[in-house]
Amino acid sequence: MAAPSIRLITTSKAPAATGYSQAVLVNNQTLYVSGQTGMISGKTDVVPGGARAEAKQAMTNIGEILTYAGSSFKHVINCNIMVTNMNDFQDVNETFKNFFTADTYPARSFFQVVKLPKNALVMIDAVAVVAGQENVKKTVLQKRISMNNFEAGTAQLAAAISPRPARREKLAAGPTRRGAISPPHNSPRPTRRAFIFGYLAARFFR
Fold it and tell me: Where in this protein does the record put region Disordered (predicted)?
C-alpha cells in the first residue's frame, strides 16, 4: 500500500504557526486546519471585542487557509470549538453560523476549556475536503474504465480456456485412425492479456 502524500499548508494571510503547521493536506483531498484564535496575521494579540469578535477573526483565519489550499467553507465537514466560558456559546454560535449556509453546516463539537493561548476566549479548528466535482467525476470515470477492462478481460480468459472448436468436433466424431491427420483449426490461443486479466480478477474481485 502506497504511503499517503502529505503537504504542509502555510499562508501569510493567517497567523504564523510556531512548532506546528497551519494546516496539513493529505492525499490532495482531506485538509486538517489547526486551531485558530482571534489573532490577526502579523499581530501578537487577539482582536478586542470579546468572544464574538474573536470567533469572527478565527473563522476568517480558517477561511484564508481553506482558500489557499483550494477549499472553502462549503467543503468543511467538521469543526471543534473551544471557549473558556460557556456563557459565550450564543455569541460564538451565531458568528460561526454566518460563515455557512443551512445546507452546508458541518459536524461540530463545542467545548469549554480552562485556558487558551494568548488568553484567547475562542479557538476553532476544522477539517475540509479539497477534491472538486471535476476530480470526483474523473475518479468515477476511471473506475468505470477499470471495470470495463475487467469485464473484457474475463471474457477473453473464458474464450481462451474453453475447449477449442476443433477439439469438440474431434471428440464428437470419435477416435481417428492412427496416422490420420486432424483438420487444421484456427481456435484462439490464450493471450498474455487474458491471463493478466484473469490474475487480476482472481486477486481483486474474488
Answer: 164-189
Between vectors from CA 133 to CA 132 and to CA 137, what angle results, nearest 5°?
125
Q: Kindly report the CATH class assigned to 6-131.
A: alpha beta
Contact indicator for 116, 84 with CB cutoff of 8 Å: yes
What residues does CATH 3.30.1330.40 cover in the chain?
6-131
Question: What span, in angstroms and rounded, lies between the C-alpha atoms of 122 and 46?
Answer: 10
Nearest 5°: the CA angle 139, 141, 143 is 70
> Number of helices (H) and strands (E), helices first, in the chain?
5, 6
- Tens-binned pLDDT, residue by residue, of the chain (206 aa): 788 899 999 999 999 999 999 999 999 999 999 999 999 999 999 999 999 999 999 999 999 999 999 999 999 999 999 999 999 999 999 999 999 999 999 999 999 999 999 999 999 999 999 966 444 434 444 555 555 565 665 566 566 555 555 555 555 556 555 555 555 555 555 566 666 666 665 555 55
Question: Of 4, 15, 11, whose CA–CA distance to 41 is shortest?
Answer: 15
**Residue listed under C-alpha cell 477561511:** 63
Angle between helix axes 50-69 and 89-97 (nearest 10 degrees) is 30
Report the C-alpha gap between 200 and 2 in whole angstroms.
18
Only one residue has cell 465537514, namely: 77
